[in-house]
Write the structure tokens for this entry.
Amino acid sequence: MSLSSLQLDAFVAVARLLNFSKAAESLFITQSALSQRIKNLEQTIGANLFIREPGNLRLTDMGQRLFRYCTVKDSMEQELLFNLLPSNEGQLGGITTIGAFSSILRSVIIPSMSSLLRKNPKIQCNFIHKETQGLPELFERSECNFILLDYPLEAPDIEKVVLGYEEYVVIESTEYKCPENVFLDNAPEDPATSDFFLHQGIEPPEYNRRFMGETYGIIAGVEAGLGRSVMPVHLLAGRPHLRKVEGFKEYRKPITLHYRKQSYYPDLHKAVVNQLSENCSKYLNPEIAIRTLGS
């Protein structure tokens, strides 16, 4: 039995977009033709690939397995075609996507990747910013080759690498008197402050929350004296208008790289894992930032 490339292309389009109409448009075919290709593929495999619900389309377990197979197959094909060109000798190329949350994407992940990307300009590395709650869904849909979380996902088909630790501290402005009972967070669902106080093992203080939209909005708010915040210490390097509030226990969370287990890893994949493993810890090093806090 062999699988039709036309049917696999149709399947990948639907699996990525989770919408038959948009997938048909992307392939320049009619929706009925697309549906027929998916039906024929399901008959060949002997299993349903999609769960169709009103207003919702998702992959079955078999669909997820096939989608991961197609992703690996495409990566191998891209690598082969790239390496066949003599002009690419000694270079890495291809496409990869890394998803990470706001406190590490800009300050840790992009700087850690920069030397690899400068050395290999034919790599198309896409970065996606999403808060931690949304990253596993992107990963499940194979929209990211890698995701970074501050906790490990437990699944038998996922590889995990701890790249370092974010150390959280309470910070306040050095220029303005911050209200001690106001803490700045990203959004109502942001657990940073509540998790920090839960870890202290004491009755948490009563405090009011203000929402600043994203990590660097929080930093600007604290610098302006709008409140205190629980913040990873590595973000504070070079910010003389902030200081650490003493009296709290150390609170660290593991920055964990996730990617799918597979029988073959392209050279680009291995290079990304090595680059992040070698470089992230130095950008997460709290000692660099602590010296700037005047504590």
Summary: The radius of gyration is 23 Å. The chain has three domains: 5-67, 69-164+254-282, 166-253. Confidence is low (pLDDT under 50) at residues 288-295.
